[in-house]
Amino acid sequence: MLSKFKRYLIGKPLTSEQLKHEKFNVLTGLSLLSSDAISSVAYASEEILWILVPLIGVLSYTYMFYLSIAIIILLFILVFSYRQTIDSYPNGGGSYIVAKDNLGTVAGLVAGASLTIDYILTVAVSASAGTSAITSAIPSLLPFKVIITLIFIWIMAVGNLRGLSESAKLFTAPTYLFIATMFIMIGYGIIKIKFLGYVPIKATLSYATTDISILMILRAFAGGCTALTGVEAISNGVPNFKEPHQENAKRVLFFLGLIIVIVFGGMSYLATLYQAVPNLDKTIISQIASQVFGNNFMFYLVQITTTLILILAANTSFSDLPLLLSVIARDGFAPRQFTARGDRLSYSNGIIVLCFISSILVVIFKGEAHYLLPLYAVGVFTSFTLSQTGMFVKWVKNKPSGWIHKAFFNGLGAIVTFVTALIIGYTKFIHGAWIVCILIPCFVYIMLKIKSHYIDTANQLSMEGQALKLPDSEKVKHFIIPIGGVNKSVLKTLNYAKCLSKDIVAFHISVNDEETEIIQKKWKQYKIDIPLIIRKSPYREVIGPLMEYIHSDEYPSKQDDIVTIVIPQFVVSAWWGNILHNHTALFLKSNLLKNKNIAVITVPYVIQHHHININDSFSKK
Amino acid sequence: MLSKFKRYLIGKPLTSEQLKHEKFNVLTGLSLLSSDAISSVAYASEEILWILVPLIGVLSYTYMFYLSIAIIILLFILVFSYRQTIDSYPNGGGSYIVAKDNLGTVAGLVAGASLTIDYILTVAVSASAGTSAITSAIPSLLPFKVIITLIFIWIMAVGNLRGLSESAKLFTAPTYLFIATMFIMIGYGIIKIKFLGYVPIKATLSYATTDISILMILRAFAGGCTALTGVEAISNGVPNFKEPHQENAKRVLFFLGLIIVIVFGGMSYLATLYQAVPNLDKTIISQIASQVFGNNFMFYLVQITTTLILILAANTSFSDLPLLLSVIARDGFAPRQFTARGDRLSYSNGIIVLCFISSILVVIFKGEAHYLLPLYAVGVFTSFTLSQTGMFVKWVKNKPSGWIHKAFFNGLGAIVTFVTALIIGYTKFIHGAWIVCILIPCFVYIMLKIKSHYIDTANQLSMEGQALKLPDSEKVKHFIIPIGGVNKSVLKTLNYAKCLSKDIVAFHISVNDEETEIIQKKWKQYKIDIPLIIRKSPYREVIGPLMEYIHSDEYPSKQDDIVTIVIPQFVVSAWWGNILHNHTALFLKSNLLKNKNIAVITVPYVIQHHHININDSFSKK
C-alpha cells in the first residue's frame, strides 16, 4: 500500500539510460536556474527599506536609489566573472569544485558548506516570501502562513523527486509571466505618475530621526545584496544544459543579468515614487501593485506570479543542492547515500533532507522571510569569494593566452565579493549571521571526519595481500536457536538448522515461569531431540544471558569459532502486520551482529493476512 | 553513547522481582491519582464563565452558583457509585473491565477507547493549563507557551519511565501545598470581603445581552463538568495501592470528593464575589489571587502550586493510560508491545506513545487549554455511563445481599452520567466533540481488527497435530551470496558459506559496467572457485533480478526448496557509523524475508572505529 502511494506520488521508475533526456534548453534553463536570482527582487528592495525607513524616514528613498546602483554594478562584475567560470568548467563549476581545484580541499569544503547552508535557506526564505505574496492579497490567510509555506515546500520536494525535466516544463510559463507582469507594472507605474499625473497615497513619514551613519548604509546595502543570491546557480548547472552546454549557460547568464537590472532597478524606483513602507503583513510589491493597478485582476496577477517565481526559486535549490551534495559525496566528504539516484533518476536523498531541514526552519522562524534573511547571503558571498579567488589563482598559475585580462575580472570579482561578504557578516552578525559563522566550520570539520572514516573503512576492507583461506568447517557449525515458544515457525527453524549442522542447541530466556513450563512440556510432547537450554533473566533482557552462555565453559565453541544464531521470525504479509508484534527477532539481530564471531540466520515463517470476519474477535475471548 | 544517555535519564534497570515495592499508601495515592480531579478546578469554573459572561454579563455569577451545586451533587453520586466498583473489582475496576465483564466486548472497547482519548486529552489540557498559570503570573513568558508545555510533558514522560514510586514521592508535597493554598485563599478571600469590607475591583459588565436559553445553561453545565474528570482514576488504580488495596482506595476516593467540594465550590463562590472575567492571557484563579493577596509571595505561591497540581494531573494519565493499554493489549485488542515492562518496570511503550500524541495536540491547539476543552469530557462521561451501567447489570444479574440498594446507586449513576454525556456531546458537538464521536468508533473497529489478526496468527502458528518432519537436507543447501564488490567482508562470507554447503553461487547486480569489470578481474586474480553470476539492472533495483534468477530454469532449486541468501554486511562499531553507509544489506534482508522459501544469513564484518587524525582526509584525495 505504501509503495503504491509512492508510485502514485513519484511516478514510474526510469531506467539509468533515460538519464540523458533530462536536460534543459535556454528557455527552460532560464526559468529553472535563474528564478532564485530574479525572485530576490520580491524581498531585496524591501530589506533595504526595513533598515532605512524606521531611522531616516523619507530620506530612505534617496539612499535606496544609490544603493540599488551599487548593487547593480556588483551584479555586472559577477556576471562577467561567472562567464569565465562557465568557459573553464564545462562539467559544472560550482564554487566547491573551483575552490577545491585551485585553493585546496579546505577552501573547497568551506565553499561547499556555505552553499549547502544557503541552498537550505533559499528554500525557507523563498517559500516564506511566496506565502507572503499570497497573504498580502488575502489577509484572511495570515494565520495559516506556516502551513501554506510547508505545503509549498512539500509540493516542490515531490515535484523534484519526480525528475527535473517534468518540473522545468511545469514552471516555464510562470517565470516569463512574472517577468512580463513586472515589466508592465514598472512601465505603467512610472507612466501613471510622470505622464498621467497620478498622486500616490503616501504614508506620512517623518524626516530623519537619527543621523545617517556609515554602518546604517552598510546594513541597508547588505540587505539589498540578497538580490544577488542565486547568480551562481547557472555555473553550477552547466552540464544540465543541452549541447552546446557552455554557450547555452552563458546566454542564460546574460539574460539573467539583464532581467535583474530592469526588475530590481525598476522596483526600487517604483518604491521611491510610491513611497512604500515595509510591514510584515503586506509586502512592498503588493503595496505598489495595489496603487498602480487598483484592486483588480492585474493586482492579483502580480501577487500570483510573485508567489510562483518564489516557489520556482526554492525549486532551484531542490535541483541544485542534491547535485552539489552528490559531488561532495562522490569525493567522500558527505554520506555516500547522496550519490544514489532514486527511481526517477533524481538524487532523492538530497531532496528529502533539504525538504526536512527547510521545513524545520520555516516552523522555527514562523514562515517569516524577514526573520530568516539575516542568516542569508553570508554563505552566498563567502562562496562567491572563494570561487572568484580560485579562478584568479587558476589564471595566474596557468597563464593561458589573455590571462591578464581574465585574471583582472576574477580578481576584481574576488575583492568586491570579499568586501561584500565582510559587510554582510559584520552588519548582520548579531541578527543571525553568527549562526552561519559557527555552522560553516562545523560542517567543514564533519566533512573531513567523514572522509577519514571512509578511508579507514576502505583500508580495513581492502584485500591487499589477502589469500582465500578456508576455516576449519567444524569451527563454523555451532548453531544456537533462541526461542520464545514452540510453534510452527520455531519448528521450521529447527528443521532448517538440522540440515546444516549437528551441533545445535535451543536457548530460552525465562521471564515468566508459567511460559517456561509450557515450553518444556511441549518439548517433551513433540519429542524434539535438540537440547533445550533455559536461563533466567531478571532484567527481562535477552542479549546479555545469551552472550554469557556462549562465552561460558558450558558451551563447546572456542575463542575464534564462529557461532551462528538461527532466529525463527514470523513475517506478516500485510504492511501493518509489523506494528502488532514484538520485534525481538529484529532487535536480537542488530545487536548480535556487532560481534565479529557471530553470524545470524533468519528463517522466515510467512503469516498470510486473511480478510477475517470481525466476529472472529469474539469467538475466542 | 545513546544508551549511556538513556541510562542517565531513566536510571538503572530494575529486576522483575522489585515490582512489588512500587505501591502507594493513602497519602501518595491521593496525590498521584486524585490530582486530575482536584486540578480540574483550575479550569472548570473558568469554562462556565467563558460561556456565560459574553452572553449574560453580571447575571452569570448567579447561574454559576446553581450550576456548581448541580455539579457537586453529580460528584456525590459518582463517589458513591465508584465506592461500589472498588469493592467489586479489587484488581482494578476501570470502565473497560467493568463494561466488558457485564455488558460485553464492544461496550468494553467503547469504554476503553473513550478513556484512552480522554487520558491523552488530560495530558494536553492539564499541561497547557499549568503553563497558563505560569504565564498569568509572568506575562513575558506568553510567547513561549507551547515550548513550556512541551517541556512539562517530556519531563513527566521521563519521570514515569523512571518508575511509579519515585515520581509519587516527588509529587506528594505539591498536592497538599495546593490544597492548603486553596483553602487559605478561599477562607481569606471570603473574610476580606465579608468582614474586612474590601471592595473588589470589578470589571464593568453589561447585563444580559441575550435572553437566557436552556441551551446556554446546558453548555455552561457541560463546561463545568470538566471538574469531574479524573474521578474514575482511583477505581482503575486499586491494585497500585498498598494492602488493604480496597480500603485504601475508598479512603482516597472519600477525601477526593471532600476536597473537590470545598475547592471547586469555594472557587466558584470567590469568582462570584470578585466577578472575575475570563480571558486567554490571565486565568480566573490568578485574577482572584492577585485581588485577594495583592502581588506578593502568596500570589506567586498560588500560581506555582496550581501549575504543579496540573502537572501532577497530567501525570495521572502517565501512570494510568499505560496500565489501561497493557490490560487491553493482554486481551489482544491492542498491539502486544503495550504489555512489555521497560527497564524500570513501567509500561514504557504506553508512556512514549502518550507523550508523543499529547505533544502533537499541544502544538496543534497552540497550548491553549480553552481550545482543547470542547473535546474533553465526552469520553469521560461515556466511560462513566458504561461503567455504571455495567455495575447495575451486575447487581441485577447476580442479586447478592443488598443488591437493590446497590443497584439503585449505580443505576442512578448510570442515568445521571448518561444524561450528562448527552448534554456534553450535544452542546460541544460543533466545537470539537464531533472529533471524539468519530474517533471512538474508529478505535473500536481497529481494536476488533487487531484481535482478529492475533487470533489468525495464533492459528497459523499453532502446532496442533504437527509432527517434527525433517526436510531432505539437499533441499536446504542452495546458497546465494549477493556481492557489490570484492573485499575482506565478502571473503569472510564466502568462507563461511563454503563450510555449510557445496551448492553456492555469488550474484552481482551490475549498475555500472566499470565496477562489474573490476569485480570480474578480482574474481580471477584471487582464483575464487565459486561461480559468479552477473545480471544487469536498468532500474538500479536488486531484489527483482535476484528473484528472477532464483525462479529461472538456470538455477537448480526446485519448487519447495529453501534458498539461503548469505549477505556480507560490514558493521561499523561507532554509533554514527550506520549513517554513512548504504543499507543495501538491511534493505535486502527485510524484503527477502517476505518469501517463505528464502532464509537469510548475515555474516558480519566488524569495522573498528579508530580515532583517526583528520589529516588522513587529505592523504588520499
Q: What is the element layout, followed by pairings?
A:
The structure is a homodimer of 621-residue chains.
Chain A (H helix, E strand, L loop, with lengths): L1 H9 L15 H8 L1 H5 L1 H16 L3 H29 L6 H9 L1 H33 L7 H17 L2 H31 L19 H11 L8 H4 L8 H30 L9 H10 L3 H34 L17 H17 L4 H4 L5 H21 L4 H26 L4 H29 L16 E6 L4 H13 L2 E8 L2 H13 L6 E5 L6 H9 L11 E10 L11 H9 L5 E10 L8 H4 L2
Parallel strand pairs in A: 1-2, 1-4, 2-3, 4-5
Characterise the protein shown here.
- 2 copies of one chain form a homodimer.
- The first copy, chain A, is of the alpha/beta class and 621 residues long.
- Chain A folds into 2 domains: 39-365 and 389-451, Amino acid/polyamine transporter I, CATH 1.20.1740; 473-610, Rossmann fold.
- Chain A is 63% helix and 6% strand.
- The longest helix of chain A has 34 residues, at 297-330.
- At the A-B interface, helix 19, helix 20, strand 4, strand 5 and helix 24 of A face helix 19, helix 20, strand 4, strand 5 and helix 24 of B.
- Strand 5 (598-607) of chain A pairs antiparallel with strand 5 of chain B.
- Chains A, B: Keywords: Membrane, Transmembrane, Transmembrane helix.
- Chains A, B: One of its GO terms (molecular function) is transmembrane transporter activity.
- Chains A, B: The chain crosses the membrane at residues 60-82, 103-125, 137-158, 170-191, 211-231, 252-277, 297-325, 346-365, 371-395, 407-426, 432-448.
- Chains A, B: Pfam families: AA_permease_2.
